[in-house]
Please model this.
Amino acid sequence: MQATAAGAELGSYRLQGVLHQTQRSTVYRAIGADGKAVVIKTPTAENPTPREIARYQRAYELARHADARAVVRHLELLRHGASVALVMEDTGAQPLSSLIPQTGLRLARWLELAVGLATALGRLHGSGVVHKDLNPRNAIVQPDTAEVRLIDLGIAIRLRRGSLDALPREQIEGTLAYMSPEQCGLVSS
Model:
């Protein structure tokens, strides 16, 4: 779906505007028929590839089975035309990347956010999920409580208990600067 003007509708949701757009996805703020605020993520391409659609399906399924305190609640996966839209609750949280000023953070705030991030990551791992793309854009923070939740589980994987099978190098995905130690340990030669 291309960037759409505010007021357009997607299913039972009225789009309020674009929050973020990349080459691969567009994230909208929207209002549901019940008046509740939501965030909707769609592929930017009007005809996404089956692999892109699978990422949205994987993100939806993993989030629905993960510890609710670790990830943003995923409400539904909408089909529209040849595409999909992932509908999530809008808690008013902000990406960690937008909270880090050029001058850095005060130590107390840095520690507070680090504990929140470690707690969310521990809860996600406790659900048997490895994020694979943990970076400051994929951690959102409630400004008033410093509660951290994770977003964008499109390339995450579910681990079976007691099994760490190595991944072929071509399946390594994520942001290199933030590559998870779990993923690096899951690489076969």
